[in-house]
Write a structure and sequence with these properties.
By secondary structure, the protein is an alpha+beta fold. It contains 2 helices and 9 strands. The chain has a 5-stranded antiparallel beta sheet, with no helix packed on it. The chain has a 4-stranded antiparallel beta sheet with strand order 2-9-4-7, with no helix packed on it.
Length: about 210
């Protein structure tokens, strides 16, 4: 074999080996990308890209809307109030209306409404009562009775964070809209200085079920 033929042979071998190596590399990258994608979407049955205020399910999502300046409610210089009066507070800033929209595809979705105390709060949790209603046929009905603020000690399975209080939990098998109204007051037998305040922010967390 002359030198020219030998060079052509070596060149062909080099090209063949290069093609094989590139093909193997492409296959490896595709496999790793698929594995990473599958893990991201299936690890806990959720898809973070479909998540608005928590964890939405695969091809499903939840979102929370409100018309107030903040997603929550605050009281300051308030007087202790009985449950009967607190449940019907109607003044400006005395209640918080919000809407949760669920887009359910391929699975049902469970969501939790959680209240998170703001760090600026100066009233004891033991003095604070929260009351939640859900709209049904145009009328608001109780879904959580007046309850002292009690934070959970670890993150819930649905996603509500440690330190928040889970107000309500709902499983939705189809898409829809839910309207809620939250009220908060100082319990009747509490002794609180007038310059004290308490603020909670409301978020929704969801997970495919």
């Amino acid at each position: 074999m002359n030198s020219t033929q030998e060079n052509k042979s070596n060149s062909s071998k080099f090209i063949f080996i290069s093609v094989i190596l590139v093909t193997i590399l492409v296959i490896l990258v595709l496999c790793l990308s698929f594995t990473a994608f599958k893990k991201a979407t299936s690890e806990d049955g959720t898809n973070p890209s479909n998540d608005s205020n928590g964890n939405g399910g695969i091809n499903s999502k939840i979102s929370m809307t409100y018309t107030e300046n903040m997603n929550g409610i605050s009281i300051q210089d308030a007087l202790p109030t009985s449950d009967e009066v607190g449940k019907h507070l109607k003044g400006k800033g005395e209640y918080f209306d919000f809407t949760i929209k669920s887009n359910v595809v391929n699975s049902s979705i469970t969501y939790e409404i959680a209240a998170i105390k703001d760090k600026s709060s100066t009233i004891s949790d033991d003095f604070i009562k929260l009351y939640l209603e859900k709209q049904n046929s145009g009328t608001y009905e109780q879904v959580m009775e007046p309850t002292i603020f009690k934070p959970i000690t670890e993150k819930s399975k649905v996603g509500s964070p440690n330190g928040s209080m889970v107000l309500y939990k709902l499983n939705r098998k189809k898409s829809g809209t839910d309207n809620y109204r939250l009220r908060m007051w100082i319990k009747e037998d509490a002794v609180v200085e007038m310059d004290k305040s308490y603020t909670v922010k409301v978020n929704v967390y969801g997970k495919a079920s």
